[in-house]
Amino acid sequence: MNLPVWIARRYFFSRKKRSFISWLSILSMLGVGVGTMALVVVLSVFNGMEELNRQIFKTFESDMTVSPKQGKRFLATPSLLTRLRQTAGVNLLTPVAQDNALARYGASQTVVRLKGVDDNYLQRRQLDSSLLEGKLLLRREGVNYAIVADGVRNDLTISPVDILTPLEILYPQSGQAFSVLNPDAFNREALTVSGIFFIESKYDNFVLAPISSARTLFGYKPDEVTSLEIQLQPGTDENKAKQALQDVVGANLTVQSRDDLNVDLYRAIRVEKLFVALTLSFIILVASINIFFSLSMLVIEKKADIQILYALGATRPMVRRIFLTEGAIIALTGAFAGLVLGVGICLAQESYGFIRMGTVSSIIDAYPVRLDASDILLTGVLTILMTILTSWFPAQRAANIR
């Protein structure tokens, strides 16, 4: 066995006596372990929250969205639609006309986000798992239907079973003086509610309707849309598809992926994750400072032993390695235990969901977690660096003893 490692191991694992220095070393090891475990768990929770948001957005938003760079609508000509459908990787293309509108149902009214879509929207089957009541239907036998979010249902007290009470959508006419007393100031469309869906509070004010009704309500031309939503074929490279679609639509339109549309939320999650990681890193740093003090006191306690080692022919690098190894044993033992516990807690939470969200309205029961190898590697490297920094000065002091 390597002599510095053997001596360092003897210093740490000796059971002949437990001095204050020994207990301080054990406390330092526990501090490193707890900090490492907390860092792994918290980073995994943030990863889980990011993944959860992606899953939520995936149930309503498309893979790619084509929208105008200026203004809120553009002309989607048949030739443009044909070229987009022929682009490699494109599965479904849905023209969308979307804007805010006023919804009335009986004696209640509220502002909604009306999203007009064509018949192939339901072929995406995104809302199948989110349907609470009724059925997913937009048009049948010349009747226009609406699929409303649960928040709209609660605001207006809508019942999909009641087919006699229509959902009336109002939108201000362009060129008319705005007045609630002027009946000609609004375009009106009456829809029959076919179903109720719930995804997340972000989408609680949405009403889905046939695009023909939305265009009539908004005063759009037959080919005018606010966006084009594109579903890609499974396994398609999103970056390549995005570039190919951008080449088709030209410079006046922009193609955005689902992540591009929600980039601010992801940025906020990552910034919060960074600051929490820095905070927990300070806990590991404090434990590492305890390693510094314990090694410093150990150097004082073992001064006579160091002088004997020098008399027996030990060199300064050898003595330095002894105390560096001692610090490494304390830190790496704690770090390894912390990593194992952290990974174990995350795997248990992912499989069994021991820690609950604690809110009745939450869309999931337990806190989401997702282990990332890069986070585990970052935590290990961070612990090693702090150990080297805090162990170097006591080890150098020991090497300078004569």
TrEMBL record:
Keywords: Cell membrane, Membrane, Transmembrane, Transmembrane helix. Residues 25-247 form the MacB-like periplasmic core domain. Its main location: membrane. Residues 280-401 form the ABC3 transporter permease C-terminal domain. The chain crosses the membrane at residues 20-46, 274-300, 321-345, 376-395. It is found in: Cell membrane. It comes from the Bacteria. It is a multi-pass membrane protein. It comes from Spirosoma flavum. This is ABC transporter permease. InterPro entries: ABC3_permease_C, Lipoprotein-release_system, MacB_PCD. Belongs to the ABC-4 integral membrane protein family. LolC/E subfamily.
